[in-house]
């Protein structure tokens, strides 16, 4: 099966491309390189051991996107990652986030409809739960008002997909609600590659350790948590990539007329920011100094998931530990220090 992967050179997308190839699928990448690098493409072909078509296309460009579908009439599934994804940035540039994240989804759904592509796996987020009243969250946990425009775009996107599925019984879709994927491929050939100052904790940690940024800033230490820092649900990005493959496997066998499926993907264990720092120190042997900074707009105090449905429905569960993920992230960071634009 040919699978179109939007945002396929990005962090989660690139790992999913490798996982798809390893599972016997033929991935096709669409990426506008706004938050990724073109040289990742060659790395993916090396890891996959096969040629992987890549088109530099912005998914909000409906004509260009439609042309990609037309060139690959055997595409039967789409994994849609392409989106802006920084919570803090979205509070400063909300219109850009709504335009990009919702516009790209609408273009993808229209192209799928025109080409009769019947499987969609959507990159959603735990941010749709807002600040949940009860933890851990399950797929039936009531959605709270999103705490950021980024979270709002994910909640709106889910509604759009649900309506599209209801109107088109041939469309089968699953929204994977990610919690906090971290780490890098064990080969250290691909990993998280933020543009500018990182917005996510782990690349901030690895860059601070390597001296790219002065030190690690922990945003907020006065939350009502055991150590005052936010609680999150961290798990390995390779495990997340595998969840997308299992989602396609499931949807390919599912009956027509199935409503949009929602599935939490996370370790199911709350870990504080300070605990992540300490696990990083133990896994890598690096000292990692840090300092506290004011709370960041859009951040929630605590959130982690119950991933029982992912296990029961997809047969998915994490294979890697948090220590594995942090060690792999550090190995990846070290390769960037050796050569900023690797061959």
UniProtKB/TrEMBL annotation:
It comes from the Bacteria. GO terms for molecular function: UDP-glucose 4-epimerase activity. Its EC number is 5.1.3.2. Residues 4-324 form the NAD(P)-binding domain. The keyword Acetylation does not apply. The keyword NAD applies. It catalyses: UDP-alpha-D-glucose = UDP-alpha-D-galactose. Keywords: Carbohydrate metabolism, Isomerase, NAD. It is an enzyme of class 5 (isomerase). Pathway: Carbohydrate metabolism; galactose metabolism. InterPro entries: NAD(P)-bd_dom (IPR016040), NAD(P)-bd_dom_sf (IPR036291), UDP_G4E (IPR005886). Its cofactor is NAD(+). SUPFAM superfamilies: NAD(P)-binding Rossmann-fold domains. GO terms for cellular component: cytosol. GO terms for biological process: galactose metabolic process. Belongs to the NAD(P)-dependent epimerase/dehydratase family. Homodimer. PANTHER family: UDP-GLUCOSE 4-EPIMERASE. This is UDP-glucose 4-epimerase.
């Amino acid at each position: 099966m040919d699978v179109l992967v939007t945002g396929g050179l990005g962090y989660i997308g690139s790992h999913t491309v490798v996982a798809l190839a390893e599972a016997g699928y033929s991935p096709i990448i669409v990426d506008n390189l706004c938050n990724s690098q073109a040289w990742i493409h060659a790395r993916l072909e090396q890891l996959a051991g096969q040629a992987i078509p890549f088109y530099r296309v912005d998914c909000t460009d409906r004509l260009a996107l439609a042309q990609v579908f037309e060139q690959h009439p055997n595409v039967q599934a789409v994994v849609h990652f392409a989106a802006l994804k920084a919570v803090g940035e979205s509070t400063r540039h909300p219109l850009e986030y709504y335009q990009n994240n919702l516009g790209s989804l609408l273009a993808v759904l229209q192209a799928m409809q025109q080409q009769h592509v019947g499987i969609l796996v959507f990159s959603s987020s735990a941010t749709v739960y807002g600040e949940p009243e009860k933890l851990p969250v399950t797929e039936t946990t009531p959605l709270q008002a999103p705490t950021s425009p980024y979270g709002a775009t994910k909640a709106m996107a889910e509604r759009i997909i649900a309506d599209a599925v209801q109107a088109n019984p041939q469309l089968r879709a699953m929204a994977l609600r990610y919690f906090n994927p971290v780490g890098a491929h064990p080969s250290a050939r691909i990993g998280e590659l933020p543009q500018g100052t990182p917005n996510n904790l782990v690349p901030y940690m690895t860059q601070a350790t390597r001296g790219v940024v002065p030190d690690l800033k922990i945003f907020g230490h006065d939350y009502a948590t055991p150590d005052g820092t936010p609680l999150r649900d961290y798990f390995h990005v390779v495990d997340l990539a595998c969840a997308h493959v299992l989602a396609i496997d499931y949807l390919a066998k599912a009956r027509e007329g199935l409503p949009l499926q929602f599935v939490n993907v996370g370790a199911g264990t709350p870990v504080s920011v300070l605990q992540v720092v300490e696990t990083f120190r133990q896994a890598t042997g690096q000292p990692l100094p840090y300092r506290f900074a004011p709370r960041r707009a859009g951040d929630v105090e605590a959130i982690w998931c119950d991933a029982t449905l992912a296990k029961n429905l997809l047969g998915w569960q994490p294979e890697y530990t948090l220590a594995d993920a942090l060690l792999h992230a550090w190995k990846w960071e070290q390769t960037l220090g050796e050569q900023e634009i690797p061959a």
